[in-house]
C-alpha cells in the first residue's frame, strides 16, 4: 500500500482506532496515575506562570548558603552575561556506508540514510523535544546539532547549522554550549561539590576570580536542588552515594556550571523512575525559562512532562513526521485523521503512530505506508522552514573563541590534584594493591631466603645458588609486570569514558591529562615498589651495598610502569575490560618468553630471536643479573656468560627501560589524541 492509497483510508481507520484507544484508558476513570499527581498543590511563587510547572518539590528548598565577610550569600548570583542563542538547521543528512560482510570493507555505493534532510529551529528560552521510536535517528540528530559528528570514511554528514544567524565556529560553539550524555559518567569517589568545582575551575575563564567561581558552583548546586547532598559522594557500584535522580542532576550540573547558552541532553530521564524523571524535567524547564536554549531527546515521556516542551520534533526512519510548537501537534495529526483520544498521553500516541510494526509483513507494510504518508504531508511545512532559513545570510561566520578556557599549567595542576585525590580514596583498590605486594614479597622472600649469600669458595655450590638467584630475579621482573597490568586493567575503563566525555566538552588538553596522571601516580607506585623491594631484597640477601639496592629499586619501578603504560595503550584502543584482559597478557607472556632466563638466546632461531630486543622483561632481567654478579671475579662475574647470556651493560639496560617507559607513555598520548572526539567543523 503506497502513501496515496493510505490517505484515502486513513479517516476510516482513525475512527476505529480512536474507539479502541479510548477503551484502553477506561481504567482509573480514564486518567493515568502519572497525570493526577500533585494537582492540588499550589506552585511556589517563583514557579507560577512557568510553562508546564505546577509544582516542583526541589525548588521549595530553603537551604542557606555560607555568608562571606561582606555579609552576602555566596552562590546566589544571576548570570546576566549569558548570551541568548537561537539555533537553526536545514537539510541535515547523515549517511552510513554499509560494510561488505565478506570483505569487511565499506561499500560507498550502497549507503544507508540515517537522517534525510532535517530542517528546524529552536529559540532562546525554549525547550525542544526530539522524539521517535528506537532507531529513528534521535541521538544522531542531537549529535549533529551539538557538533559531535563529522564526516569520515565510514559516514558522511551534510547540511547547514546557524547560531544566531551565523555559521557556527566549532571552538566558540563548544564554549557556549554543553552536552549531557545519557550515561552518567562521573567518578564515584568525588563529592557533588567537587565534581562541579572541577568543571568550574577548568571550563570557566582563568581570569575569573576564584570566589566568583565558587559562587557559580554553589548557585548551580542550589539551582539543581542538590544543596542537601553537596558533600556526599556521587557513588557507583562499590561506593554508596546519591540517588539516581540526584546523580542525573549532578551530570546536568557538570555542564550547567559553565552557564551555557545552549544545552543538549540525550535521554535525560533514562533509567529513572517516574518521580525522579519528572523532577529532572522540572529542572530543565526552569533552565529554559531563565533564557537558555534546551534541546533534548526523550523516549515517550509522561503527559505532564510532554506539556513542558515548547517545540516538538517527531522522527521516523530518519525523516520528520512533525516539527513545530508542541501544543499544535494534537491538532496537526487530527487534520490528518489521526486524533489523539481524550485523556490519552499524546507522546505515547504519536510514537505509536510512527513506529514500524514488525509482527508480520502486512502490519509492517501498513505502518511503513503510514510513515511515508506523514513524511509527504510534512513537506509543505518543511518548505516554510527552509524559506525562513533562506532569508538569513549564512555566509556570516560566528566569532572565534579559544578552544580551552584555561591555560595548560592550570589544567595540569587541577588534574593532578583530582587524580591524587581519587588515588587516595580508592580504599578497596589500595588495600588489594598493597596487600598483594606484601604477600608476594614475603612469600618470595621465604622461598629464596638467604639464597643471595653465595659461598664463592665452592664453585659447584656457588653455580647452583647463582642459578637460583637468576630464578628470583626473573620472577621479580614478571611479578612487577603483572602488578602494573592489574593496577590499570580494571580501573582505567571507567576513567577513559569520563576523560572522553570531558574532552568532548573542551575541559582540558590530552597532554595535561597524561602528564597529570603520571605525576599523581608516581608516589603511590613508588611506595608500592619500595615496599616490595625492601622486603625481598634483605630476605633473599642480595648485595649489601647501597648502589645495587637503588638499581634494583629503579629496575622494578620501571618494569611496573612500563607494564602500566602498555595496559593504558591497549585499554584505550579496546575499552572493553574483557577484551583488554585477553590481549594484554599476550604481550606480557611474549616478553616473558624472550626474557633471557627460560631459554638461552643462542638456542633460538635467528628469524624470531630478534623479539628479545623488544622485550622489556629481557632488559629488566639482564640489568638485575649484572647488578648482582657484575662486580668482578669475586662475586661471580663469569656467570654473566655462563649460565646467563648477558648481552648488555648496566647503563644500557637502565637507559633501555627508560626508553620503554617514555615510548609507551607517548604512544598512549598519541592513541588518546587519535581516538578522541572530533568537532564538526563543516556544519
Automatic annotation (TrEMBL):
GO terms for cellular component: plasma membrane. The keyword Methyltransferase does not apply. It comes from the Eukaryota. Its main location: membrane. SMART domains: AAA. Gene3D superfamilies: P-loop containing nucleotide triphosphate hydrolases (3.40.50.300). InterPro entries: AAA+_ATPase (IPR003593), ABC2_TM (IPR013525), ABC_transporter-like_ATP-bd (IPR003439), ABC_transporter-like_CS (IPR017871), ABCG_dom (IPR043926), ABCG_transporters (IPR050352), P-loop_NTPase (IPR027417). Keywords: ATP-binding, Membrane, Nucleotide-binding, Transmembrane, Transmembrane helix, Transport. The chain crosses the membrane at residues 431-449, 469-494, 525-543, 549-570, 582-599, 648-668. Residues 98-342 form the ABC transporter domain. It is a multi-pass membrane protein. It is found in: Membrane. This is Probable ATP-dependent transporter ycf16. It comes from Porphyridium purpureum. The lineage of its organism: Eukaryota, Rhodophyta, Bangiophyceae, Porphyridiales, Porphyridiaceae.
Amino acid at each position: 500500500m503506497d502513501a496515496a492509497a493510505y490517505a484515502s483510508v486513513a479517516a476510516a481507520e482513525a475512527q476505529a482506532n480512536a474507539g479502541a484507544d479510548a477503551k484502553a484508558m477506561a481504567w482509573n476513570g480514564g486518567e493515568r496515575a502519572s497525570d493526577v499527581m500533585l494537582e492540588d498543590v499550589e506552585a511556589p511563587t517563583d514557579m507560577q506562570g512557568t510553562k508546564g510547572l505546577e509544582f516542583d518539590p526541589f525548588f521549595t528548598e530553603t537551604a542557606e548558603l555560607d555568608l562571606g565577610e561582606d555579609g552576602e550569600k555566596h552562590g546566589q548570583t544571576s548570570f546576566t552575561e549569558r548570551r541568548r542563542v537561537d539555533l537553526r538547521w536545514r537539510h541535515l543528512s547523515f549517511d552510513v556506508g554499509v560494510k561488505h560482510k565478506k570483505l569487511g570493507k565499506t561499500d560507498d555505493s550502497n549507503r544507508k540514510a540515517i537522517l534525510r534532510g532535517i530542517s528546524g529551529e529552536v529559540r532562546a528560552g525554549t525547550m525542544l523535544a526530539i522524539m521517535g521510536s528506537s532507531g529513528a535517528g534521535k541521538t544522531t540528530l542531537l549529535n549533529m546539532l551539538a557538533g559531535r559528528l563529522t564526516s569520515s570514511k565510514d559516514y558522511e554528514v551534510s547540511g547547514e547549522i546557524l547560531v544566531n544567524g551565523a555559521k557556527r565556529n566549532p571552538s566558540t560553539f563548544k564554549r557556549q554550549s554543553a552536552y549531557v550524555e545519557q550515561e552518567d559518567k562521573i567518578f564515584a569517589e568525588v563529592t557533588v561539590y567537587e565534581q562541579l568545582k572541577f568543571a568550574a575551575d577548568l571550563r570557566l575563564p582563568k581570569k575569573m576570580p576564584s570566589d566568583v567561581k565558587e559562587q557559580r558552583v554553589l548557585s548551580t548546586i542550589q539551582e539543581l536542588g542538590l544543596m542537601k547532598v553537596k558533600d556526599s559522594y556521587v557513588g557507583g557500584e562499590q561506593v554508596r552515594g546519591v540517588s539516581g535522580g540526584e546523580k542525573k542532576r549532578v551530570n546536568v550540573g557538570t555542564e550547567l556550571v559553565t552557564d551555557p547558552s545552549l544545552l543538549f541532553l540525550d535521554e535525560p530521564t533514562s533509567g529513572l523512575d517516574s518521580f525522579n524523571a519528572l523532577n529532572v524535567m522540572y529542572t530543565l524547564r526552569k533552565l529554559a525559562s531563565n533564557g537558555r536554549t534546551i534541546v533534548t531527546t526523550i523516549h515517550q515521556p509522561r503527559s505532564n512532562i510532554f506539556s513542558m516542551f515548547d517545540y516538538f520534533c517527531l522522527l521516523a526512519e530518519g525523516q520528520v513526521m512533525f516539527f513545530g510548537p508542541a501544543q499544535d501537534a494534537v491538532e496537526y495529526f487530527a487534520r490528518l485523521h489521526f486524533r489523539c483520544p481524550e485523556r490519552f498521553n499524546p507522546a505515547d500516541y504519536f510514537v505509536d503512530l510512527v513506529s514500524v510494526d514488525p509482527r508480520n509483513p502486512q502490519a509492517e507494510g501498513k505502518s511503513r505506508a503510514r510513515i511515508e504518508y506523514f513524511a509527504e504531508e510534512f513537506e509543505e511545512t518543511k518548505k516554510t522552514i527552509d524559506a525562513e532559513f533562506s532569508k538569513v545570510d549564512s555566509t556570516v561566520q560566528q566569532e572565534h573563541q579559544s578552544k580551552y578556557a584555561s591555560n595548560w599549567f592550570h589544567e595540569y595542576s587541577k588534574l593532578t590534584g583530582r587524580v591524587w585525590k581519587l588515588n587516595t580514596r580508592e580504599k578497596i583498590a589500595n588495600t588489594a594493591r598493597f596487600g598483594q605486594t606484601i604477600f608476594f614479597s614475603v612469600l618470595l622472600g621465604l622461598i629464596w631466603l638467604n639464597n643471595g649469600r653465595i659461598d664463592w669458595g665452592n664453585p659447584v655450590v656457588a653455580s647452583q645458588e647463582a642459578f637460583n638467584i637468576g630464578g628470583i630475579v626473573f620472577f621479580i621482573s614478571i611479578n612487577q609486570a603483572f602488578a602494573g597490568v592489574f593496577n590499570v586493567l580494571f580501573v582505567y575503563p571507567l576513567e577513559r569514558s569520563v576523560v572522553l566525555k570531558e574532552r568532548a566538552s573542551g575541559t582540558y588538553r590530552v597532554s595535561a591529562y597524561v602528564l597529570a596522571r603520571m605525576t599523581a601516580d608516581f608516589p603511590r607506585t613508588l611506595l608500592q615498589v619500595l615496599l616490595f623491594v625492601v622486603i625481598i631484597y634483605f630476605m633473599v640477601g642480595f648485595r649489601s651495598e647501597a648502589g645495587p639496592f637503588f638499581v634494583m629499586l629503579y629496575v622494578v619501578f620501571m618494569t611496573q610502569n612500563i607494564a602500566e603504560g602498555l595496559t593504558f595503550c591497549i585499554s584505550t584502543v579496546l575499552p572493553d575490560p574483557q577484551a583488554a584482559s585477553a590481549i594484554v597478557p599476550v604481550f606480557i607472556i611474549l616478553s616473558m618468553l624472550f626474557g633471557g632466563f627460560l631459554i638461552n638466546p643462542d638456542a633460538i632461531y635467528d628469524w624470531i630471536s630478534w623479539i628479545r630486543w623488544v622485550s622489556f622483561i629481557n632488559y629488566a632481567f639482564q640489568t638485575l643479573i649484572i647488578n648482582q654478579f657484575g662486580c668482578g671475579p669475586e662475586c661471580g662475574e663469569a656467570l654473566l656468560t655462563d649460565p646467563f647470556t648477558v648481552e648488555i651493560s648496566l647503563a644500557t639496560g637502565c637507559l633501555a627501560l627508560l626508553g620503554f617507559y617514555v615510548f609507551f607513555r607517548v604512544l598512549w598520548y598519541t592513541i588518546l589524541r587519535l581516538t578522541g572526539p572530533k568537532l564538526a567543523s563543516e556544519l
